[in-house]
Amino acid sequence: MFKVLKSMIAGIFTGAILGVLFAPKKGSETRKKIKDEGIDGLKDTAKDMGTDIQSTYNNILKDENVKSGINKAKELGNKASVKAKELYKENIPSKDRKKIEKTLSNTKKTIEKGIQKAADVVDNLSKPKKKN
């Protein structure tokens, strides 16, 4: 839940920065200000926006209706998960469940290997190349 919310906030933050930079009416003024102040001005603007977004996020989480909604969503999610497990056990024969679980386990291992290989490639790319 919080991963989704954080991703959403990051998207809003990124969109807000791009919107400010490329807004048709006051964008030219904003771009001139950024040009005059340099990258430090942009950093300060982004930091201020981040602070505002964090404050808004914290205020939203303090709202009783939001808290209640989050709790209801968690409760419904837990109920759905329990029901899905029950249906799985009731409707999928034991023999098939074992095959499914083995396939899922193998898939997880393959994904982990792929992630490790990707990390190795990134590490190799980020290392300075030796000159001959």
Entry keywords:
about 130 residues
Structure notes:
This protein is an all-alpha fold. The chain folds into two domains: 2-91, no CATH class; 93-132. It is 89% helix and 0% strand. The chain contains five helices and no strands. Helix 1 (2-22) crosses helix 2. 0% of the residues are buried. The mean pLDDT is 78.
Draw up the topology in text.
Blueprint: H1 2-22, H2 27-37, H3 39-62, H4 64-91, H5 94-126
Helix pairs in contact: 1-2, 1-3, 2-3
Compute the CA-based radius of gyration.
24 Å
> How many structural domains does the protein architecture include?
2
Task: Describe the main β-sheet briefly.
Answer: none
Ranges with pLDDT <50 over ≥5 residues? none
Strand proportion, as a percent range, falls in under 5%
Number of strands: 0
Helical region count? Answer: 5
Helix content: over 70%
Quick rundown:
The chain is mainly α.
